[in-house]
Each structure stands twice: as structure tokens, then as C-alpha cells.
Amino acid sequence: MVNKENYICTQPFTYAAVFSNYVDICCDMWHTAGHVENSNVEDAWHSLKFQEFRNSILDGNYKYCSLRCPHLNTLVTKGESWCFVKKEDINLEDFRNPTLKHVKLCDNETCNLRCLTCRTDFKKGNAYTTLKHLEELKKLGVERVDVMGSGEPLAISSVKHWLRSFNCSDYPKLKQIHIHSNGQLFTREMYESFSEDAKRLIKSVEISIDAASKETYEKIRRGGSWEKLMTNLNFLMNLNLKEYHFSYVVQKENYQELDQFYEIVKNLVQVLESTFTSIRYTYADCWINEEDYNRQVKLPEECYENVYSQIESILKKSCQDKITVYTNISKNE
């Protein structure tokens, strides 16, 4: 087992997630350091709270971090994880005054689906909040922007307008736009509506799927169509982007399909050349009330060994297939 004290997680030194009324420098379900409320991004970035969080990583104690984090869990169990670097390979002083380079917008819950893990009904967020943050990013000079961590970006009017009117001159340091989508609205027509500058900078996508069959998909991802998803995925593969990511939230209705999901992704990416492909398997975190979570999402205890067995098999195959798999599912969690 790897000693995490010998590694630095680079995320909190370059990354911030921006919500409607707070800012975080990691997924708030994976750490206990807390977030900064009612602040602009720049002030939050330099806050004492975030400095203390970063110091716990530099010191190697990771006292705020949980193995629920798939990146930390993967480091501990596999011996490597994409956002970790060995202390012996870096100059720690370079991390004392971190520069914000990567912002993930999570400020709008508008979505075209109502998945079992996070929606009891369709939601609509505040488009003004997203526009305000997009304007703020112009001044920050970040290198990467992710849309969207809390809703479906292609169902949000302000995000679609931004992508259709995007001009590189407004964001001179920006090198990459990452779109995290459920794939239902990511059609050829939608992509072609984006500005040429936006299309040049869209270098990566993450598609959340959570199933390996039509029956399971349409039961979990209420409002979605399996056929439409497959059509849009095949279109996205033809774009030959720099990175493709696929996510799978393990829950009561889909835990038996982990291996089949891996095979679907493997077949999709066979057509790609020189791209990075990853699959993220995670346990469902509770975005809904406890009663609904326990009834329709929470994995029964007797299912865990089945899940562990599938994950172990997938991790072995992924090395040969050159597909990166990271997960918070292990007996260490």
C-alpha cells in the first residue's frame, strides 16, 4: 500500500469549484475542510481556510481528506493517480503560492433529467449567477474552465449562449474548455452551433452514464433515452478530442453492470488515436433526502463483495487496454 505522505495532490493548488453561494477547492463530499461562503473566487482562493487545507497536504497528513475521494483511493490502492505527484520529483516551494488555473462551474442545477441519485424532479437554476461567474473568469486569467458540475450545461441557456458567442480574445489565457454532460443534448447540431473559437478549445468531455443497458439506464436516468445517448456518443467519438471521461455512480439498480459498462467504453474508444480515456466508478453520494436515498439508491451490504470483484477485474483489464480507471470503491473505504 502506498504511503500518501510521500505525495502531493495537486488539485487544491490549481483548482476551484464555484457554486452559487460558495467556493471550494475540492469536491466537498471528499473532504472535511469546509468551503468559503459568499465570496468571489479570488478572495476565496487566498482565504485562510484554503491555505490550511493546502498545508495539510504539504505536511503529508491529509487530515481533511477522505478515501471517498476516488483519486486518493486510487493512489492508495493502485500506487498512482493522475492528480498526485511524488514529493521527491518536485520543489515544494513552488506550491507555497499557488496560482488558480482551473475553474469548474457548479452554480446552476438546471437539468433535463431527474436521476435517482440527485433529483426528485426537474430543476431550473439561476442563469444570472452563471453569467456573473463567467464574467469573473475573464479577470482571473484561468487556463481551463469546466461546465457544469451541478446540472446539464447544454440545458442551461447562459452556458449555451457563452459557447455560441465565445471569443478567445475575452479569455486570452484559456487553453481548454471541458464539458461534463449526460450526453442527451450533445448532438451534432448542438456542437455545430458553438463558435469556432469554442470548438477549438473544447478538448475534453465527461459523459455520465450510470448503466450498461437500456432498461437500467432509462430507469435510473429518468427522462433519458438509451438510443439517443448511443447516437450522441458515437458522434462525440468522431470529434477525436484530447480526453474522454466516462462516469458511473454505483447504486442499487446498476451494481451488476459495472463490467458491461467497461466493455461499452472500451468498444467506443477503440476508434480513437492518442487520446486519454478514463472511467470513474464512485459510490452514490446523497444529493436527495435520506429516505429516498436509502430506498432507491443505497447499495445493500450483501452486494459489496460483488462490486469489489467487478472493480478488481476491471482494474486488471484497464492496464492492458490503456484505459485509466479511478474509483473510491475498495475495501479500504
Helix and strand arrangement:
Blueprint lengths: L6 E3 L5 E4 L3 E3 L11 E2 L3 H5 L2 H11 L11 H9 L5 E3 L15 E4 L8 E2 L11 H14 L3 E4 L9 H9 L10 E6 L6 H5 L3 H6 E7 L5 H7 E2 L3 H13 L4 E8 L7 H12 L6 E8 L6 H7 L7 H18 L2 E4 L6
Parallel strand pairs: 2-6, 6-8, 8-9, 9-10, 10-12, 12-13, 13-14
Antiparallel strand pairs: 1-5, 2-3, 3-4, 7-11
Report on this structure.
This protein has 333 residues and is an alpha/beta fold. 35% of the residues lie in helices and 18% in strands. The chain is built from 12 helices and 14 strands. It has helices at residues 41-45, 48-58, 70-78, 127-140, 157-165, 188-192, 196-201, 214-220, 226-238, 258-269, 290-296, 304-321, and strands spanning 7-9, 15-18, 22-24, 36-37, 84-86, 102-105, 114-115, 144-147, 176-181, 202-208, 221-222, 243-250, 276-283, 324-327. The protein has a 10-stranded mixed sheet with strand order 4-3-2-6-8-9-10-12-13-14. α10 links the parallel β12 and β13 (276-283). α4 (127-140) runs parallel beside α5 (157-165) and α10 (258-269) runs parallel beside α12 (304-321). The chain starts with 6 loop residues before the first strand and ends in a 6-residue tail after the last strand. The model has no long low-confidence stretch (mean pLDDT 93).
